[in-house]
Amino acid sequence: MPPRLLAECRRERARPGHCGRRGLLCAFRRPGGLVLLVSALLFLRNLAVLHRGLPAAAPRPLYALAVHPPQQVPAALNGFGLWNVLVLVLMLLAYGYPLAQFVIAPSPSAMVHRIQ
Fold first, then answer.
1. Is the Cβ–Cβ distance between 26 and 9 less than 8 Å?
2. How confident is the model over 40-84, as pLDDT tens digits?
3. What one-character DSSP code corresponds to residue 56?
4. Quick one: the chain helix, strand, coil %, rounded to 5?
5. 13 and 27 Cβ atoms separated by less than 8 Å
6. pTM, whole model, 2 decimals?
7. 66/63 Cα distance (integer angstroms)
């Protein structure tokens, strides 16, 4: 909350029965803080419970089998090299010319609008 809002809430608390312009915001401040406190305590409890517990043995996931499984995967598709080069080429195509325009083209002069 900005400092001004806090100052107004303190002034309103000094005068009981007076809500002022920001009465609704001041009214929701305490329950909102309580909700944040409870959620923080639940988060810490979750961390403590998960830290104390023994790691459960995860069952091995079952994957579907291909109808016609390949005998051998091409080497280019079996790593990230091809995909990294492909991403680099596509990024150069997409951003190369717009970025090169900053160097190649002269800077435009400022536009001046005269009001009469």
1. yes
2. 999 999 999 988 877 778 888 888 888 888 888 888 888 899 999
3. P
4. 60, 0, 40
5. no
6. 0.36
7. 9
